[in-house]
Amino acid sequence: MAEFTTADQAAAEQPSAGAPPLDGHEAAVILERTRASVDPELRAAIDSLPGSMRRIALYHFGWEHADGTPAAGSAGKAIRPALVLTAAAALGGPRARATALRAAAAVELVHNFTLLHDDVMDRDTTRRHRPTAWTVFGDADAILAGDALQALALGLLAEDPHPASSAAAARLASCVVELCAGQHADTALERRHPGEVTLDEVLTMAEAKTGALLGCACALGALYAGASDEDVEALDAFGRQAGLAFQLIDDVIGIWGDPKRTGKPAGADLAVRKKSLPVVAALTSGTPAATELAELYELPYAKEDLERTVLAVERAGGRDWAQVQAADRMARAMDELTRAVADPEAAGGLLALAEFVTRRST
Amino acid sequence: MAEFTTADQAAAEQPSAGAPPLDGHEAAVILERTRASVDPELRAAIDSLPGSMRRIALYHFGWEHADGTPAAGSAGKAIRPALVLTAAAALGGPRARATALRAAAAVELVHNFTLLHDDVMDRDTTRRHRPTAWTVFGDADAILAGDALQALALGLLAEDPHPASSAAAARLASCVVELCAGQHADTALERRHPGEVTLDEVLTMAEAKTGALLGCACALGALYAGASDEDVEALDAFGRQAGLAFQLIDDVIGIWGDPKRTGKPAGADLAVRKKSLPVVAALTSGTPAATELAELYELPYAKEDLERTVLAVERAGGRDWAQVQAADRMARAMDELTRAVADPEAAGGLLALAEFVTRRST
User: Residues annotated as region Disordered (chains A, B) (predicted)?
Assistant: First the structure.
């Protein structure tokens, strides 16, 4: 899936769902603090691996170059561990946050196991501005390192004496299964004829592939804070809805994003005929523009057709639908958050992270 | 790795390490009883998967044909779950055995996750006399189904209320990491020049790839019986040594096995220039036959050289070394078993299983 490193006017124009405007500073502070407290856990876990697996993991996390020399490290934004720690703090205060470091590391390990495997399956050659692990170490070693990271993640929780650790491990394991089903659905959808794909299918896929782990991260934080089952589920739903909002906006950026800011060519998703959320919304709109878009999607990509394709998605309502949906998902996320964390001050950190993933970047 | 379905005169000729002769009947009874009690756990776990993942898992386990129609099922010999249950019974009696069903299913799920992934990496096209999952569903789906089975295994233990379940999950997770390192070492060794590979390296690889999960299975049974740390480690060592004995004998069969009984062509491992244990023992023997073997291994395989290659391994002492090593490993396994389970009657089941994997077949 996409990293949380893109942003665009399209995103900045999102309605704010009634939340107070945030400048992203709070989220940046949370993310920095997360890295500082979770990185040592993560490094210790990875250092416990046998040499062959450790080398690939250190490369993937950006802590080593391919030749084994130390690197500065650029292991993503740490959104998921930040959600674990911030959810724990929101429901149980700083003490709960302090007990949830392993859980935060476990979620980040699971995320990175899926990145290693997804990159092999999708033949993606770049990740976090570096060659992907499979391009450096080969498919087999990238698969094995991913397998080892999953084991490391669930092993961390199994060794954690915290009373919530078993429930957290069960939840994380079940989330992995959902992530696998989501990745399967994603590749299966891309292989199908555009006319056969329903909006429900793409939304379900996006929830499994993107929403599930964000929801699980929040739920684990709640579990470590000793929250009630109801609050754990509300936090899971908060993360899932925020994740879907992120995906909707990421898909908008994939079509209307400014190449100068996204680093990708204009209309990148249309060029590869991706069945992203706005495209499927457009294709299933029953409008004349939907027919035009379906015809264009039948043809191989030609640069001179790009503008017409973009306009067809717009005229068929794909962009508006995605933006309204994203705002709606964010509103639902806020409802769930308020249900579990009534005090606005305690909820502030999670709110800032949700705003960050759906609207901002650096 | 190899399934426990081959046998041969070479194996039958193994010294029996002082153990009373067994006709394999006791092992067959244990394996049948294991299937009867573990299969329902296993089926329930697999049935809990989302449709896409369930379909691949059911095919891999032999419970469905590729088209989704029911199949008779031929999911291997269930040696590993049998070791879990028999170790639990040896140290804690029938009540301990009854509590260890989930742990037994978890070990079998981990074994099958590694088979799914190893088949993708090794490009193996046949498993249990059927086309491998990746040949039917593609690489991506076989990788995802393997990922899901690992999660299912560790999730089963996380949900298990038994007081030993966390320790068991931690041990199984750590075993997965060792299995990954073993598979990496195996493929890395096969890529290296025969003259550069040491016997220690091949033994370490075989222990990680084959011994680790057999040891872990026995250790999990001991944990579920509430055994002391010392007994858990002794049971782990028992399984590891028996696993190494199995691998040594399997490698002997790979060269001297009777094609009529193994179903593979004569000298199959030599034809693919495999650096199996007897071959590396021969290559590192410092004898004139070692030099001859090294020269033959430099050349592409030619059928007319097979007899000379087999003889070179023999004259360099590869066969004798492997047989003595196998007997030695079995003796060590028995020592460890006796240390933890002093009563010969209680130890009988584990002894029968060890004899079965190292000497017998269907």
Answer: 1-23
Confidence of residue B249 (pLDDT cuts 50, 70, 90): very high
> Which amino acid is it at A17?
A
Distance from CA of B229 to the nearest CA of A (A): 16
Query: Which residues in chain A have their CB less than 8 angstroms from residue B180's CB?
Result: 53, 144-145, 147-148, 151
What's the distance, CA B233 to chain centroid? 19
- pLDDT the model gives residue B282: 97
Distance, CA of B353 to CA of B362 (rounded, Å): 13
CB contact under 8 A, A154 and B151: yes
- Let me know if A81 is exposed, middle or buried by CB neighbors in 10 A (0-12, 13-18, 19+): buried
Q: What is the mean pLDDT of residues A196-220?
A: 97
Please give the DSSP secondary-structure letter assigned to residue A196: G
B19 pLDDT above the threshold of 50? no
Contacts of B184 in chain A (CB under 8 A): 52-53, 140-141, 144
> Which region among A8-12, A269-273, A312-316, B17-21 has the lowest average model confidence (pLDDT)?
A8-12
The third-level CATH classification (topology) of the domain covering B9-359 is Farnesyl Diphosphate Synthase (1.10.600)
CA distance B1 to chain A (A): 15
Among A49, A52, A170, beta carbon nearest to B185: A52
What average pLDDT does the segment B73-78 reach?
Answer: 77
Tell me the chain A residues in contact with residue B167 when contact means C-beta distances shorter than 8 Å: 158
CATH for the A17-359 domain, from 1.10.630.10, 1.10.600.10, 1.10.10.10, 2.60.120.430? 1.10.600.10
Task: Please give the pLDDT value at position A163.
Answer: 98
What is the average per-residue pLDDT within A25-40? 94
Closest CA to B114 of B55, B164, B62, B184: B184
Packing angle of the helix pair A139-159, B101-122 (nearest 10 deg): 160
Total number of residues shown for chain B: 362
| Cβ neighbours of A187 in B, within 8 Å | 140
* B140·A180 Cβ contact <8 A: no
Strands B130-131 and B126-127: antiparallel
